[in-house]
Amino acid sequence: xxxxxxGNLPQKKRAAWISLLVGLTMFIAKxxxxxxxxxxxxxxxxxxxxxxxxxxxxxxxxxxLSSKPADESHLYGHGNIEYFSAGIExxxxxxxxxxxxxxxxxxxxxxxxxxxxxxxxxxxGIAGMVNLxxxxxxxxxxxxxxxxxxxxxxxxxxTDSYTSxxxxxxxxxxxxxxxxxxxxxxxxxxxxxxxxxxxxxxxxSIGGLMNETDLTILESISNLFSRIKRECWIDIHHLRxxxxxxxxxxxxxxxxxxxxxxxxxxxxxxxxxxxxxxxFPNSGISVxxxxxxxxxxxxxxxxxxxxxxxxxxxxxxxxxxxxIGDPVYL
Length: 330
Hints:
CATH topology of the largest domain: Alpha-lytic protease prodomain-like
Number of domains: 2
CATH superfamily of the largest domain: Cation efflux protein transmembrane domain
Order of helices and strands: HHHHHHHEEHEH
Largest sheet: 3 strands, mixed
């Protein structure tokens, strides 16, 4: 079984621990602000922080589990746990939004009472700025380490930050105008906003579990094949790939001259694998070697061939559509 060195793992764990510790601190700060003020808008912000702490804890567990090497029960490794984690985080966010809408509606019906809004507003403002920097950090680390769970966590924290800043803006309006009814209205607007965040996380999670094609990765692989193409490669077709955590597994068919030895074919496979790992360090390939037939001569650029039955007559473009399609001679 091919081994993959997850060199980005320490960065992922460190980022997840930072997110959890900061999340706990922000949660305590926001709950304190809510207890001081009784503000529904601040309660909505604190409720989202509960989700952040729960989701970050799950993310940390997922990162540790996904780091386990492949075994007999999981031949492709454990990376797909990150998709489950992102999906559950999305569900938690939606649950928080529904809770916020319910509480805010009750306040609109029964009346709003708040106190010491200026103190609570200041606490939420500071928490929002801290989360802004944390979210940007997590998204950056997630892209660097190719980790869906860190990117998802970063987007959630950024949403939390925007929520806090929106709440602060609304509370400042309440302080200026004295219209307390604005407090639950702001909370409902916040909840509607985070509903979209939850939906997007669930959408990404389902896409990952269903092996939805990542067009960016597909384009990168296609561009690589076109760039490193050798004369003896007659055709590449039936390209497929799947992403498990930060590992990419690709398989495809490669047509080579029929007289190539197993050793020569293996050299070509090694060359492709090493080239692919220059852009996707944690990747592996499985190549089905096809041998050429007389009909392939008219497509073939291999001038060193001693067994050519026909001249090269037909050019075709090496592009994504070609790679994922059928052999050139069909």
